[in-house]
């Protein structure tokens, strides 16, 4: 089966138009790389890997290993949808993905929020040299609770 020149040109134009709408998340390339947190007293290592932005997405993953066994993992994406940057998390314990909107960012930090989610409602990454701080928090009954993870840059395996 051959495709006509006109059909090919229409297909090419549609693909080009679609490619122009797929935008890379703004200024978040600083997050790319491999990051690790070791907690020796709990025999725990948490690693988070982020691919460089390409094709309108950043893809990430996280794994927690405790005493030599994987105890949790998470699949992550940062995408641009209709002019809004969205962080999408799919932890191993959840059946559904959760979306957070980018609410603030600069050259070394990004804050994503979803006020209707139970926990977390806010996720913030901040990079300083070879350190990456990840904060997760939520507010209930006028009380904010959360935790921070302090990652160090490692060579990607």
Folded structure, characterized:
The protein is 11% helix and 55% strand. The protein has 157 residues and is mainly β. The longest helix is centred in the first third of the chain and has 17 residues, at 5-21. The chain starts with a helix and ends with a strand.
Q: Can you summarize this structure?
A:
The protein has 157 residues and is mainly beta.
Flag low-confidence runs.
6-22
- What amount of the residues lies in strands? over 45%
Multimeric status of the protein: single chain
Strand order of the largest sheet: 1-2-3-4-5-6-7-8-9-10
Give the end-to-end Cα distance, rounded to a whole number of Å. 45 Å
Q: Give a quick account of the main beta sheet: strands, pairing sense, barrel closure.
A: 10 strands, antiparallel, barrel
Mean pLDDT score: 88
Radius of gyration: 19 Å
List its salient traits:
157 residues; 55% strand; 11% helix; mainly beta; 10-stranded antiparallel barrel; 1 helix
Can you lay out the helices and strands and say which pair or pack?
Layout: H1 5-21, E1 33-39, E2 44-50, E3 57-66, E4 69-81, E5 84-91, E6 98-105, E7 109-113, E8 122-128, E9 131-140, E10 143-154
Antiparallel strand pairs: 1-2, 1-10, 2-3, 3-4, 4-5, 5-6, 6-7, 7-8, 8-9, 9-10
């Amino acid at each position: 089966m051959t495709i006509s020149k006109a059909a090919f040109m229409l297909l090419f134009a549609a693909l080009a138009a679609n490619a122009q709408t797929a935008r890379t998340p703004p200024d978040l390339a600083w997050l790319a790389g491999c990051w690790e947190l070791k907690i020796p007293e709990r025999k725990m290592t948490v690693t988070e890997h982020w691919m460089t932005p390409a094709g309108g997405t950043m893809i990430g993953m996280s794994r927690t290993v405790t005493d030599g066994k994987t105890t949790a993992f998470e699949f992550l994406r940062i995408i641009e949808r209709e002019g809004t940057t969205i962080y999408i998390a799919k932890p191993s314990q959840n059946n559904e993905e959760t979306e957070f909107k980018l609410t603030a960012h600069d050259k070394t930090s990004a804050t994503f929020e979803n006020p209707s989610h139970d926990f977390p409602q806010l996720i913030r990454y901040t990079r300083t040299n070879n350190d990456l701080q990840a904060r997760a928090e939520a507010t209930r009954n006028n009380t904010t609770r959360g935790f921070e993870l302090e990652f160090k840059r490692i060579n990607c395996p």
